[in-house]
Specification:
Layout (H helix, E strand, L loop, with lengths): L2 E11 L1 H4 L6 H7 L12 E5 L7 E5 L7 H9 L1 E9 L15 E3 L2 E8 L3 H9 L4 H4 L7 H11 L6 H19 L6 E7 L4 E7 L8 E5 L4 E5 L11 E2 L4 E6 L2 E6 L23
Antiparallel strand pairs: 1-4, 1-10, 2-3, 2-4, 5-6, 6-7, 7-8, 8-12, 9-10, 9-11, 12-13
Helix pairs in contact: 4-7, 6-7
Length: 277
């Protein structure tokens, strides 16, 4: 499992959230409290939005607590929208291409969780990625495939619907060819304007997810686990929930993976015969 933190609001130095709090994401990379493995040492990454529509992206394979470049960048970069991730690998190698966040165009994405037995059906899953997006498939993780499937299903037009569609297909493949748990997901993604978060699992053990309004920052923090010592003021996101934080305010809706008809070509014998209402 992994740990991540995201922010949207008035411009903030990344270090104010990532490195300086008592239980910051850097500290969580060494001693997380709410995941199966307390150490998240298989790389880190950050995506931030500033002067261009596309996010800046910095990722590396070192533990977050030991990399002086992360500390230096976080203390200098100021942004009103950023995503930061520390990784604990489940099945795939420790490499830069497997570190989150992932980015395509103006979208960035990061994930904590797993798709059960993904290695056994990775080829089948990757075949569902559209030709136009397949060039962005750089690594080997289930998370990157999930992101590219959602991008191909229409993130630009309906982010929740696109992510539900992608989760549905990977969960169905896991039920056919993989192992339990078929799907566990705590994810954040953004187009630079709105920050989205989803929490879901095929069982009752969805990865932890919290949010709160930080008055002194004038912004929203969305995290795998609270970064302050007291953990006061945080709201836990319910399993099966999708939230958006953006210029039009904050909204909440149910997150229900399902197949949606769309023009994306599918392989022969795909999952279209498993539609749900």
């Amino acid at each position: 499992m992994c740990r991540w933190a995201a922010y949207t609001g008035a411009p903030l130095f990344l270090s104010d959230m990532v490195a300086e709090p008592k239980h910051s994401l850097v500290n969580q990379s060494l001693s997380a409290e709410e995941c199966k493995t307390p150490v998240n040492a298989d790389g880190f990454g950050l995506a931030w939005y500033a002067h261009r529509p596309e996010p800046g992206l910095f990722r590396d394979v070192y533990p977050a607590w030991s990399d002086p470049n992360l500390q230096s960048i976080a203390s200098q970069v100021k942004s009103g929208m950023f995503l930061v991730h520390v990784r604990a690998s489940t099945e795939t190698a420790t490499s830069r291409n497997n570190c989150h966040p992932f980015a395509v165009g103006r979208w960035s994405f990061m994930h904590n969780g797993q798709v059960g037995g993904f290695g056994a059906f990775r080829k089948k899953a990757d075949m569902l990625i559209t030709d136009a997006l397949y060039e962005h498939r750089k690594g080997a993780t289930d998370s990157e495939t999930l992101f590219l499937l959602a991008a191909g299903a229409g993130l630009d037009s309906n982010p929740r619907k696109a992510m539900e569609h992608a989760v549905y297909h990977l969960e169905a493949l896991s039920k056919r060819h993989g192992t339990t748990p078929h799907m566990r997901l705590s994810a954040a993604f953004s187009d630079g304007e709105t920050l989205y978060a989803a929490r879901y699992a095929s069982d009752d053990k969805a990865p932890s997810l919290y949010y709160r309004w930080k008055e002194n920052w004038q912004g929203w923090a969305i995290v795998s686990e609270p970064f302050d010592a007291e953990h006061d003021g945080w709201t836990e996101v319910a399993q099966g929930t999708f939230r958006s934080f953006g210029p039009d305010g904050v909204s909440t809706s149910r997150f229900v993976p399902r197949h949606f008809d769309d023009p994306t070509p599918r392989e022969a014998g795909s999952l279209n015969d498993q539609k749900v209402a």
